[in-house]
Design brief:
Chain A is an alpha+beta fold and 185 residues long. Chain A contains five helices and seven strands; from the N terminus they run E-E-H-E-H-E-E-H-E-E-H-H. In chain B, strands 15-14-26-25-24-16-17 form a seven-stranded mixed β-sheet, sandwiched between helices. Chain B has a six-stranded mixed β-barrel with strand order 30-34-31-33-32-35. A five-stranded mixed β-sheet of chain B has the order 2-1-5-3-4, sandwiched between helices. Chain B starts with a helix and ends with a strand. Classes of the chains: A alpha+beta (185), B alpha/beta (864).
Chain lengths: 185, 864
């Protein structure tokens, strides 16, 4: 039983301490297990891993392939003809639990709705992917990119120009399939 | 008025009621009500698209299906009359199936472009599809007929009005816009063209949807088919908050909702209040909020330093004001100070203004009527009596005869105009309009009587004489000496002078005398006339002979013009206040000046003489909107010191030594008293622009710099205002026929045309010039001209016309302006209308302070 015992008392506070447990006597078999048996087992483990393929990679020079549904840096998609898919409907901003998206719509020369300002604050963003899920135009996706640390707060505010840049994206079969399903309906 | 209302209730038989059962609840409604009315009465939700509470039902959308026992099929509740012992189910399985099918059919041909649609978030179709639509896939497996981003099968967005964009793809053909335009507004500029699947809602061929009420069509559209250019792609509704507000221009007091976000107000919509507006607001009220966000606002106080206006801090400006005001007060005495305030400012500002001048500075020279000339000088003028009669806007809709004299109703009181239309549409009332010009009301009036210019009182005297001759006058009124009271004193002479035939006058008089609840309205053409008192007496005589001023039936009033004119009247912001009002003010202000004050006319002549030395003009712009540009300008220039507070730079601020920036109605909390005397509060929607201050705060700072304090905190000021409003009683008098002598105005010179300077259709006063949406309707000062005259002079809309002042002996001779012609389809005859809303074109240089009618000559400028 852990008994609480008052060991000192001042005017302001009480310091409590646990009564230390008596260490049990290991016995002969215990002594042997921790010395004669354990050491060879340790060596066996070490030498086994020496000849295995290493788990770590040389990160800045080599990069690990991300999982297809990894939620990294956002990007804005374009149509085949190069026009932006985003119509600035505001649903991603409405869905965003971190309030990280700010947008202002405008009208282009064809009378179509378009984003004048589209900003994501990557410091606020929690990469939950709700914006991607809410987007009715399949315009915003969370990509594979994860290296976007900068040394200024402004650098984390991604505007439309930055988000429309095509990052290297591995073929994302699941997403493509999902898009096909959505389009069918 | 209240007496008559209770009497009406007693005499009318009890309304027949019908009892039915809806969803197991027993409900009783008035006979003639629909099942939908019954459901709404009990707050039972029934989805609708084409139904609107203020329009007739058509049953076009069939969304309001309900199941009624013993009816084999689902019934549209908006077009089914409630009957005794009906058993209605609004949420049965069959009902839900029916509604589901309707949504399915609508969505077959409705693009799913909600992300780009402006209505997204406040769309009836979105809401109803979510609530009542399909949860699984549609039965129709084919692709949509109209595909997004497919230009061949879709309509392009089309600008069908200055502020209206139509997207036909989204239209569900509920015809609400077309119906509202025809039923409620009496406009026919939007309609449905083509047939079946190809039906298009479009502006009438060759025209635009540019009526005064066009914004309402956008507001009632259940989908995003009609959107407003102003709100288009601006902000999403779910990112906005709403605050209640009031129309800051017209005296009708239409209720608004301002939609704001953290930075500014983005739009204004109606807020249904059956007492004042029925949910319809004019475009001036709708787009008038833009004065708050305009680029043309003054953002800091300006002080005239060696002829140039320099932006300074409030402290510096107040220092100049206090120094100069003290100088004038010490050297010349307090009566040399005068103040003019705009009746478009809120009650607290008006009261603070009164308190500053009467309580603190000790000058009785305050006035709010800077748009008028030849003002009454005694407290018990008949004009003042008729202007302070109680009037109910809602009662207009239920009166059986409406008599409008000297009022371009649609421009002065857009909501009263709609109420008269409603009375005609619903109650088949008679509308008699008598005006020197043809107005919009002509298209629905029983008889539009056009009397000769400047013979307003003759026409009214004709009605008086006709009532007496036909023996229809109130029996208690002594009509013995009528021949000596009126000039001309026979009906025939009156008819000859005013140009309206005896038969028409008799017909009108008979109808008025036989009516149960007549409404008599006199408007701006009476208020603005220099024979105001005479006309008011004639108007009073008619109302007296009909038993209206005695409180026997109906209502009659000269309607106030601006949002807070009635408030200014009740707060006593004019020099000739009654003894009781003086006593109340004395009680509140502690000190009160003994000397009688100068009204606006006297201030102007006093400024040219030696009587007035310094003036404070608050929100008003008399140089632009008052009568006689040159006279007012000369008077204000000869002042020693002029302070003007306004929202924007005006011709009046150009003459000022100090200009103070005022906040607009969207930037502070306040209240207006509308023409009925109904005080309604409005709330701030955004932060104040620049260093601008609400009127009461600016006045308090001025007072503090002079060593006074107007209020300790705002609630005490508010209490004082409420106390004054509560204690205000409209003047009473003994009733007898008044004398009204007509003096014929001098005959005009040959080839000269009469001109009225007033508001353009889409403008009010001098502030609306800042609203870019209203400039889309009326971009510049126009000379409205009848089609007949235009064809005679070979003038088309858009032509430049040189207007020359045509007054032989007066100083205005030779005044000329170049205005754009606007051929009006309403005007008839030779009368011209010019808009005074634009600072660049001071059309009031043609008007004068001493003649009833202004005459001009016009010549077309040939294009080079």
């Amino acid at each position: 039983m852990n008994k609480l015992k008052t060991i000192s008392r001042t005017d302001d506070y009480v310091v409590l301490s646990r009564e230390s447990r008596p260490v049990p006597d290991p016995g002969v078999w215990g002594m042997l297990r921790t010395t004669v048996v354990a050491i060879p087992i340790g060596f066996i483990t070490v030498f086994k891993h020496l000849f295995r393929k290493s788990v770590t990679i040389e990160y800045p020079f080599k990069k690990r392939p991300m999982f297809p549904r990894y939620r990294g840096l956002h990007y804005l998609e374009r149509y085949e003809d190069g026009t932006e898919r985003c119509v600035c409907c505001g649903l991603c901003a409405a869905a965003c639990p971190a309030d990280a998206i700010y947008m202002e719509p405008m009208e282009n020369e064809n009378g179509e709705r378009l984003a004048k300002v589209y900003e994501i604050n990557m410091i606020r963003c929690i990469f939950c992917g709700f914006c991607e899920e809410a987007c009715p135009e399949e315009a915003i996706f969370l990509g594979q990119e994860y290296e976007f640390a900068t040394d200024s707060r402004d650098g984390f505010i991604y505007n439309k120009e930055k988000l429309l840049v095509t990052h290297p994206r591995p073929e994302n079969t699941l997403k493509k399939m999902w898009r096909k399903v959505r389009r069918f309906f | 008025m209240s007496d008559t209302a209770t009497k009406d209730q007693k005499t009318t038989p009890a309304v027949e009621m019908v009892s039915l059962t809806i969803d197991g609840r027993p409900i009783s409604v008035k006979k003639g009500a629909t099942v939908l009315d019954a459901c709404r009465q009990e707050n039972i939700p029934v989805p609708t698209f084409c139904w609107h509470p203020k329009l007739r039902s058509v049953g076009a959308c069939r969304m309001c299906y309900v199941e009624i026992e013993k009816f084999p099929k689902l019934m549209v509740s908006c077009a089914t009359e409630a009957m005794n012992d009906m058993v209605v189910l609004t949420d049965s399985e069959k009902c839900r199936e029916g509604r589901k099918a309707i949504i399915e059919f609508i969505l077959l041909d409705h693009p799913l472009d909600c992300p780009t649609c402006d209505k997204g978030g406040e769309c009836d179709l979105q809401d109803n599809a979510f609530e009542y639509g399909l949860s699984d896939d549609t039965r129709f497996a084919f692709r949509k007929a109209r595909k997004i981003r497919d230009k061949n099968s879709t309509f392009d967005d089309l600008q069908i009005g200055p502020e209206m964009v139509r997207n036909q793809n989204r239209c569900i053909l509920c015809y609400k816009c077309v119906r509202a335009n025809e039923e409620a507004f009496g406009e026919y500029d939007i309609g449905a063209y083509q047939r079946g699947h190809n039906t298009e809602i479009d502006a009438a061929p060759g025209g635009q949807v540019a009526s005064l009420y066009s914004g309402n069509l956008v507001e009632i559209c259940p989908v995003g088919a009609l959107t407003s250019s102003d709100w288009r792609y601006k902000i999403r509704v779910w990112n906005t908050q709403t605050v209640p507000s009031i129309d800051p221009y017209h005296a009708d007091g239409a209720n608004l909702t301002l939609w704001k976000d953290a930075t500014k107000v983005h739009r204004a919509t109606s807020r249904m209040n059956d007492d004042t507006d029925d949910g319809w607001i004019s475009d001036i009220a709708r787009y008038g909020y833009q004065i708050a966000t305009s680029e043309r606002r003054i953002k800091a106080p300006l002080v005239n330093k060696n002829g140039a206006m320099v932006e300074v801090s409030w402290e510096e400006a107040l220092g100049v004001i206090s120094r100069r005001f003290k100088e004038v007060k010490e050297s010349q005495g307090a009566p040399c100070l005068a103040g003019v305030v705009s009746p478009n400012l809120d009650l607290k500002t008006l009261h603070a203004f009164n308190k500053l001048f009467r309580g603190a500075l000790g000058s009785n020279n305050v006035d709010y009527r800077s748009d008028y000339s030849n003002l009454p000088t005694d407290a018990d003028s008949t004009y003042g009596f008729m202007a302070s009669r109680s009037f109910s806007i809602d009662a207009v809709a239920s009166s059986d005869v409406i008599f409008v004299v000297g009022s371009n109703l649609i421009r002065e009181h857009p909501n009263v105009h709609l109420k008269t239309r409603r009375a005609i549409f619903e109650k088949l009332s008679w509308l008699y309009t008598a005006n020197p010009i043809v107005t919009k009301s002509a298209d629905c009036s029983t008889d539009e009587m056009i009397y000769n210019l400047g013979t307003d009182e003759v026409f009214l005297n004709g009605v008086t004489l006709s009532l007496i001759q036909q023996g229809l006058a109130d029996k208690e009124v002594d009509t013995g000496k009528i021949e000596t009271l009126l000039i001309p004193n026979t009906l025939e002479k009156c008819a000859e002078t005013c140009g309206v035939s005896v038969e028409r006058i008799n017909e009108c008089a008979k109808r008025l005398a036989n009516s149960k609840s007549p409404t008599l309205i006199a408007g701006e053409l009476v208020s603005n006339s220099i024979a105001r008192e005479n006309i008011a007496k004639s108007f009073y005589n008619v109302a007296l002979l009909l038993g209206i001023v005695q409180g026997k039936r109906g209502q009659a009033a000269v309607l106030a013009k601006a949002a807070n004119s009635k408030g200014a009247e009740a707060l006593g912001l004019f020099p000739e206040i009654s003894a009781t009002q003086t006593a109340t003010l004395k009680n509140q202000f502690q000190s009160f000046p003994e000397l009688a004050g100068a009204n606006w006319d006297a201030m102007l002549s006093g400024a040219q003489g030696e009587d007035i030395k310094a003036m404070l003009i608050f929100g008003a712009n008399p140089v632009q909107t008052g009568a006689d540009y040159n006279h007012i300008k000369k008077s204000l220039e000869s002042l020693d010191f002029l302070v003007v507070a306004d929202l924007k730079e005006t011709p009046t601020t150009a003459l000022a030594d100090v200009v103070l920036p005022l906040s607009s109605f969207a930037e502070y909390d306040g209240s207006f008293t509308n023409l009925e005397g109904r005080t309604q509060d409005f709330c701030a929607g955004m932060k104040r622009i620049g260093a601008s201050l609400p009127g009461y705060e600016a006045l308090n700072r001025i007072a503090q710099s002079l060593g006074f304090s107007l209020y300790a905190d705002l609630s005490s000021l508010q209490d004082e205002v409420s106390e004054l409003l509560d204690s205000y009683n409209a003047p009473e008098r003994k009733h007898f026929l008044m004398e009204s002598h007509f003096q014929a105005p001098p005959a005009p010179q040959e080839n000269s045309l009469p001109l009225f300077a007033g508001d353009a259709l889409h403008h009010f006063g001098h502030w609306t010039e800042m609203c870019h949406s209203l400039l889309e309707f009326n971009p510049e000062a126009a000379l409205e001209i009848s089609a007949d005259l235009a064809s005679r002079l070979d003038i088309q809309t858009g032509d430049s016309v040189r207007v020359l002042c045509d007054r032989g002996d007066k100083g205005n001779k030779g005044e000329k302006l170049i205005l754009k012609a606007l051929v009006s389809d309403i005007l008839e005859g030779d009368t011209l209308l010019a808009s005074h809303n634009f600072a660049a074109k001071p059309v009031n240089c043609f008007t004068s302070r001493d003649s009833r009618v202004s005459y001009v000559r016009i010549e077309k400028i040939e294009k080079q």
